[in-house]
Write a structure and sequence with these properties.
Elements lengths: L10 E5 L3 H7 L4 H22 L3 E8 L7 H24 L2 E6 L7 H13 L6 E9 L1 H17 L10 H7 L10 E4 L18 E4 L9 H11 L12
Parallel strand pairs: 1-2, 1-5, 2-4, 3-4, 5-6
Helix pairs in contact: 1-2, 2-3, 2-7, 3-4, 5-6
The structure holds 3-methylbut-3-enyl trihydrogen diphosphate (2 copies) and magnesium ion.
The site of one 3-methylbut-3-enyl trihydrogen diphosphate has 11 residues, from strand 2.
Length: about 240
């Protein structure tokens, strides 16, 4: 297989971590950090075309984040609603196609309506594919996909013997996405916290100390640049 990559990662996924610590360092409530973090997203989405990044997937809220205080969870949900309402026009005008992954069942109706509208509104765009993960967890996603597969088998629509990795991938929330080439996590934590477990089997990882609200397009460009000098072997032996 290939040795040096020498090209941009087509799909970059980001675990946007460190908003809370960023706010605490400034003596502010955690939500202040989430607002600052949300403002960073536009700059990163805009940087994608020049960097050759076609797909950007961002982790906004995990299936485990419900364990936070009611104030923080409600504040985040309200931030998502405001973000979508406020950014919709710019995203549409800039050629960004937006889609959401995660289980919508636990999200409030108003938020789900805004998500559906934004997906529909930007459906003809193709300059950048932005995927936002809300109430997303890799294990939850695989469980939901397995449930759908089991139902199809039960209904006689799927032969269990035909099930392979492709079949499972088609039933995941990310069925429309290529696998991520590069996963970035900010804030110094070196773990994946249940993000894109199946899809990242062969992704390159970059863990950086910067807190998400301090992340910017220069840092993004540097990481994308260093990706292209890495070696991806996919299990093969290369010289
Ligand atoms: C990431 O920042 C955003 C979400 C998980 C919603 P955190 O809120 O996890 O910030 P830290 O890790 O506590 O600093
Ligand atoms: C991961 O960050 C989830 C998001 C960035 C949305 P967390 O802050 O929730 O992860 P842990 O708790 O440090 O593993
Ligand atoms: Mg965190």
């Amino acid at each position: 297989m290939s040795s040096k990559i020498n090209q941009s990662p087509r799909h970059v996924a980001i675990i946007m971590d460190g908003n809370g610590r960023w706010a605490t360092q400034r003596g502010k409530p955690r939500l202040f950090g989430h607002h600052a973090g949300a403002r960073r997203v536009r700059e990163i989405v805009r940087a994608c075309p020049d960097l050759g990044v076609k797909y950007l997937t961002i982790f906004a809220f995990s299936t485990e984040n419900w364990k936070r205080t009611q104030t923080e969870v409600a504040g985040l949900m309200s931030l998502f609603r405001r973000y979508i309402s406020r950014e919709a026009k710019a995203l549409l005008d800039e050629g960004v196609r937006v889609r959401f992954i995660g289980d919508r069942i636990k999200l409030d109706e108003k938020l789900v309506r805004l998500m559906d509208e934004l997906e529909l509104m930007t459906a003809d765009n193709s300059k950048v594919h932005l995927t936002i993960a809300i109430n997303y967890g890799g294990r939850d996603e695989v469980s939901r996909a397995t449930k759908r597969l089991a139902r199809e088998v039960k209904a006689g629509e799927l032969d269990p013997e035909s099930v392979d990795g492709e079949t499972l991938a088609r039933h995941l929330d990310t069925y429309f996405l290529p696998d991520p080439d590069l996963v970035i996590r900010t804030s110094g934590e070196a773990r994946i916290s249940n993000f894109l477990l199946w899809q990242s089997a062969y992704a390159e990882y970059e863990f950086i100390d910067t807190l998400w609200p301090d992340f910017n397009k220069k840092i993004f460009a540097d990481i994308v640049g260093s990706y292209s000098s890495r070696n991806r072997r996919f299990g093969a032996v290369t010289t």
